Predict the 3D structure of the following.
Amino acid sequence: MKEDKVYDCIIVGAGPGGLQAAIYLGRYNMQVLLIDRGGGRTMHARRIENFLTQKSISGREIIETGIEQAREFHVQIEKGAVYGIVKKEFFEVSAGDGKYLSRSVIVSSGAYDNLPPIENVHKFLGAGFYTCVDCDGYKTTGKKLVVLGNSLKTVHLALAMREMYTKDITLILYSLVPPEGYLEELKEDGIRFITDRPVRIIGGERIEGIELRSGETVGCDVIMSNFGFKLNDEFLSGLNLKRDAEGFKFVVNHNYESSLSGLYIVGPMNTGPDQAVIAAGEGAVAALDIKKRLLNP
Ligand SMILES: Cc1cc2nc3c(=O)[nH]c(=O)nc-3n(C[C@H](O)[C@H](O)[C@H](O)COP(=O)(O)OP(=O)(O)OC[C@H]3O[C@@H](n4cnc5c(N)ncnc54)[C@H](O)[C@@H]3O)c2cc1C
């Protein structure tokens, strides 16, 4: 064991979910260890505009301020990757070169986006190249938009984007040709449709277009990509936790507790929606539940 100490809670991941939980638990004077490997999706959000009281704030600022705030309430924060969790008398959390013991665990390790292999994707990620309608759809309002993906969900997304944000849309699907009914609907809505593979995003400060394998360049100001995401869940593989019907996301109760008592999962890894403000709320609820168990054991 790294230490003989038994923590009240170990939190995996310093995104909004984990940090909000840490702040609550720290303010209950609990012994809390937060382990984070750095990076994460919130860190990629350059301009968050939907967080109450924050007209515009970067994800980095949310995380850095959150870490400072948690430290003020004596939360111990360690840099490192958690690679395993086992439940015996206590939870044994393996990270770095040791194991830590805890009465409860909050998992808030988030997800990572499936980004298409296109030159300059990382340069424009969060700055014209978007992956989440709820986060950044608004920023496409009135703009020349490319919707990118390869499923019927992407077609639905293009049709919905037209309703909500902009009439100037080109839909690019890698290989899928949608059924006839969809093609008619796209035509009626004035959405241009192309089947091809993008190879490069063009632009200096801002996106100016997207170059396709065929050599064609589609001019655009913004791109909405729709290739889904994967969960940062490798370290949970030994616990046999209940997942949804697709075997993808983790099933939790109304306090965000998983099928294993004492282990909570907040943020996009559970079956709820994927938003920074929601992950933070879920972290608060999980922390309240951990405190409630002290009051009503
Ligand atoms: C480009 C972009 C823009 C976005 N814009 C918005 C927006 O405007 N508004 C909004 O509400 N939401 C936005 N989001 C979504 C938001 O970032 C997520 O909903 C949010 O990340 C969820 O918070 P989280 O705490 O679950 O995870 P994250 O922020 O992803 O944090 C997870 C943390 O866990 C760490 N971690 C992962 N695995 C391990 C491990 N094994 N051991 C230790 N640490 C680990 C990661 O390194 C990371 O630090 C955006 C996302 C992206 C990608």
User: Anything to note?
Assistant: The pocket of flavin-adenine dinucleotide is lined by residues 12-18, 35-42, 44-45, 48, 50, 81-82, 108-110, 113, 125-126, 131-132, 135, 232, 235, 267-268, 274-277, 279 (CB under 6 Å). The chain has a mean pLDDT of 96. The first strand starts at residue 6 and ends at 12.
